[in-house]
Amino acid sequence: MSMARFLTLEGIEGAGKSTVGKFVLGWLARQRIPGRLTREPGGTPLAERVRQLVLERGSEPLSPVAETLLMFAARDLHLKNLIRPALERGEWVICDRFTDATRAYQGSGRGVDAGLIETLAGAVQGKLEPDCTLLLDLPPSVGLARARSREAGPADRFEAETLAFFERVRSGYLELARRAPRRFRVIDASAALAAVEARVEAILEDLV
Ligand code: T5A
Fold first, then answer.
1. Is the CB of 40 under 6 A from ligand 1?
2. pLDDT score for 154
């Protein structure tokens, strides 16, 4: 049996994370490797309630620090109640967004202090880091157009942000990848889906 792996999917809105997450799960099933697809913020019943709080566009403003604390509150629940138990059972965990999203969105996007983010990451994760992070990279104009063409309802708090905000988030992600080249795999997500999946498959074969 292959060793449990913790794989995270990152990128801006509409990059194709959910699509690639399902592809990874199908690929693992074909190899008879137990896998679990989950997402952040969310993944457990309580963490999904936190997700609603941070995504809804309510009348009361949510400060960047409050947003950061809520992301880590949800992450702590998710780690304790889903991610760590699944890894301990020997399952692969594929997580649609994790702490790099906080670094990119709250850190680079909103300007939250990187020291605060790393302190919270240390308290919540301890030594646990993803084994591999697939960064689906594409211009925000392309990603937002994809996300908006698919959605029926109103934009959530993040989708309503400016293009400049998503440019900062994208640059933040690329900087994280430059600083941790062994963990990150940067994938050109503006390519056709078949090309993206072929690249993901090659990475998975390498990981197994
Ligand atoms: N957030 C989250 C933070 O600010 N901090 C944090 O710490 C965390 C964890 C979560 C929001 O929370 C923020 C970031 C987010 O704004 P979400 O719903 O989980 O929101 O994330 P979104 O990025 O909004 O999810 P999306 O569903 O919009 O994007 P995906 O999953 O990247 O894209 P996907 O797979 O749904 O694809 C979008 C469309 O494009 C098509 C798909 O078929 C679909 O229609 N598509 C392609 N089309 C052409 N070519 C390709 N290669 C394609 N790949 C997909």
1. yes
2. 80
Which atom of ligand 1 has the smallest separation from the CA of 21? 35
Q: Which domains does the chain have, with CATH numbers?
A: 6-207 (3.40.50.300)
Closest CA to 207 of 156, 131, 101: 131
pTM: 0.97
Q: Which residue minimizes the CA distance to atom 51 of ligand 1?
A: 193
Q: Which atom of ligand 1 is nearest to the CA of 191?
A: 52
Taken in order 59, 65, 68, 70, the sign of the CA dihedral is negative
Lowest mean pLDDT: which of 134-143, 153-162, 183-192? 153-162
> Is the beta carbon of 147 within 6 A of some atom in ligand 1?
yes
pLDDT for the residue numbered 150: 77
Q: Which two tokens stand for residue 86?
A: 């699944």
Atom of ligand 1 nearest to the CA of 11: 32
**Could you tell me the CA-to-CA distances from 58 to 30, 52, 62, 105, 163 in Å, in that order?**
43, 10, 9, 19, 21
Cβ 179 vs Cβ 108: under 8 Å? no
- Residue 24 CB contacts under 8 Å (≥ 6 apart), including other chains: 7, 9, 35, 37, 94, 200, 204
